[in-house]
Amino acid sequence: MESSTMETMFFLCFFFYSVLVGETTAQFAGKDDYGIEAFRQLRENNPEMFCKYITCTENEKPEGCPQGTSFMPGVAQFGCCGACVRFKQREDDSCTGSIDPNYGGGYNRIGDSRKKSLRESIVSYGSGSISDLLPPNDNTLSSSWCDYFLKCDKPREGSKILACLDGDSGDKGCKYFQRQYDRFLSDPEPDPVTHYTSDKFISFRDDYMWRPNCTQGNEFEAKQCKGPTDEERCICVDPSGNRIYGSAFSFQKELYETMNCACSRKVWEMKQAGVTSVTLHCAENGNYEPLQCVDGWCYCVDPITTETYGPNLPEEAMNLLPCYDEAKIGGQYLRRCESEFHGFATLADLLKSKGVQPPSTNLNCDPDGSYGPIQFDGKMYRCYDKYKESIWNPAGDGCQCVRDVETFKEYGLTIDVDCQVNSGMYAQIQHRGGTVYCADEDGVRTGPRVYDKYEGYLECASSLRCQAGILTNCPNSCNNCPPEAYTKYQ
To answer: Which of 103, 270, 377, 428 is deepest in the core (most CB within 10 A)?
Structure first.
C-alpha cells in the first residue's frame, strides 16, 4: 500500500474515531485497532454522514468517462463517489461475475459465495489496490466482472478458471452498438494489401460512424450526438434509441451545449402510460421550459438541472412565479395547437365516460405546444411550420428536411440540402460543393464523403447500418472506391 494512501487512511480513522468516541490523542494511540472499528461503524450505520467527509476526485460524472468504461455510482472512495469502470472483455480470464442482469448481474452478490459482488470486484485501474482506498486522479477503475452480453463461466469442461464468454443476449441493446464500435475502432491500421477495403477503421473512409451513449441498464441515453465531429447533430431518443422530439445543431450554441432531453423523455413516458393530453412544454432541444403547468397548477423548473423551485400556483396566478416571462408566455399557458388539442381531448374523455365513442382527430402538436410538421388539411397531408403555415406539398413520413431549411433561414445560414420532392424528408444522397454522401432522416452524414463522380458507387443501405452500429460490410459503403475517391484521403 502506498505511504500517502496509508497516511490518508490513518488520518481518516483517527478523525472518525475521535468524532465518535471523543477520546484524546493519548487514549487513541493506546487502542489496538487505531479507530478502524469506529470508522467501519460510521460507514455502515450512517453512510450519508460518512460521505460528507469524502471529497470525490475528478471524472465522477458519466460524461467524463473515457471510452471503453461505464460510469458507476457509489463504487469509489468508500462507496461515496461515482467512477469510470472498465469491465473485462471477451475471453478475459479470472472473472468473478457479470454486469449483465441476464447472467446474474447487478449491485448484489451473484451466484455462489465465491463470486464477488460488484463493489468487491472493483480495483483502482492499473494499481491493484482495493476500491476502498483512494483511487488515482483520473478515477478510472477496473472490475473483475464481465461486461454486458458476456457471462462469467468455464470456457471448457473441467477448466479450473472462469472466463468472459459470449452470452445469449449479445446482439441487443445500446451496449451492443458500443462494443461493435469499439471493436471496429480498436485496430486503426488499414489492410496492408488493399490499403482501404479492410474491415478495420480507416479515418478518411469511416469518420461518419458514431458511438452511442448508454445507461448502465443498457438503454440509450436520452441525448445522442451523431455524425462526424465537424458535422454533428444532437437528437433526443427513447430508451430503445428511436427518435423523439428535440434536436440541436452545433451552430445553435446555447441549445446545443445545454441539451439534456429531460422534458422530451418525460413526455414520451407519459404518452406510453396512456396520457392523452400532455401539457408539459419542451424547448426545441428537448429540455424543460422554465414555466410548466399541469392540471391547472403551475411551477418553475430549472432547464439544466431539471429541479423545481418556487411555489405551486394556480394557472390564473402563474404571473407571480419567478420564472414567468410575459413576453414569451403572455396571459395563457397553452399555445394554439395544444389548446385546440387539449379541448378535443377533454371532450373525448367526457364522451368516453358516458359510454360514447368520441370522433378522431388528425391534429398533430409538438411538445413545445406548437403545430407539428405534418398536418392533414382535409384532402392530403402537408408539411407545416410551427405556426401552421404550409411549407411543402405533399408530406411523407417526416418533413424534417424542409423544417430544417426554415431553421437555417432563422439563423441566417445558406446551406445546400436536398429534400425529397414527394415528402419533405432528406434525400438519401446529398450533394454539397462537388461532393456527395449518404444521409439519414436528420440529414446527418451516414457514410463517407466522396467526389461527385463516384456517386454511383455509394451504397447508402450499407452505410446507414454501419452508422447505426451494425458493422457488417462497412467497407462497401462506397463500393470498390479507390482511396482518391474520398475527399478526406491524404
So the answer is: 103
